[in-house]
């Protein structure tokens, strides 16, 4: 069955969604007015990163990222701060509602005092990861991979050179792998008890519900990271639609998840990570719509061809928005077509090694690999082209030639920017 039976249901859905969105924004504005009523806001915060930088005059300063229960604050300081918990004060005079709604903004921070707090579960897990690595850089990499912690400028640059930022940003790819891992581990034990005590139960539904519950717990640990939040919502909606016999691989399903996510968290409107996450799923659906033939699964040669073409299609189609926000380009980014499949082995292996206390086993090879890629240049995308790209997505859904043109345009810009 289709998601909506008629246009009236679509209208009702968007009216209700618009009302919920307005209420969510209104609640945010109410909280904002309470903050603005005071000259400064006192809050407890966790220092996520303190990175050294140089001013135009050659003076050293530090860029700090503080995380409070409500938002993240970017600020500058003359002295380096160690990661930990702090009591801080923020002036509210120059705090605007748009910045507050984003959930992250730049602000002066003063009266900074280190405080002693009980580490959260996430902080304890991050520390356990770091303890397994002699290199802080490796600990930082795995901490970002497992718990979405910030990256230093150096590591961020190396990851961009390889074009694997999407592999490190926890999203639907990771959720799918985690789902497969848990299903594989639980399938036999559950079947054993099912056959003896509750044969009337549906194994796939019960295991899916249990794994989704674990996913919700992981989402809470990650503090509702936007990309993973979207992925989790899609998996929950997909499960509900599947058991009700409604079509899953449809653009309406993606739209439903996006609208629901924005209604529950309006700040996602300003999240680049959320935008990329949704866009990646969109192009997966576009490829399935225009090139996915069930008969091709009967041929190993065609399946292999699809595996390569699919990765190249998504890689190329994503180039324009990626370079619009992150101009750094490298020929090594093309290797992501193969690295995406290698990650299917690397990700569960790295989890297993950390669970058994051998997380640092691959550090030297991994760090050498990351440092091997070099920056090739920068590709700047004008705003008019970025806007045109987003408008063309509407036509890419219906017209195959438009989808191909979007992908080829991205590939052309990539190779032209590097070699011409």
Automatic annotation (TrEMBL):
Alphabetically ordered keywords of this record: Cell membrane, Membrane, Transmembrane, Transmembrane helix
Keyword match Membrane: yes
Topological type in the membrane: Multi-pass membrane protein
Transmembrane segments: 12-30, 162-185, 205-224, 236-262, 268-288, 308-326, 332-358, 379-397, 403-419
Pfam families linked: Competence
Main location: membrane
InterPro entries reported for this sequence: ComEC_N, Competence_DNA_uptake
Segments forming domain ComEC/Rec2-related protein: 151-376
Compartment list: Cell membrane
Name this protein carries in UniProt: ComEC/Rec2 family competence protein
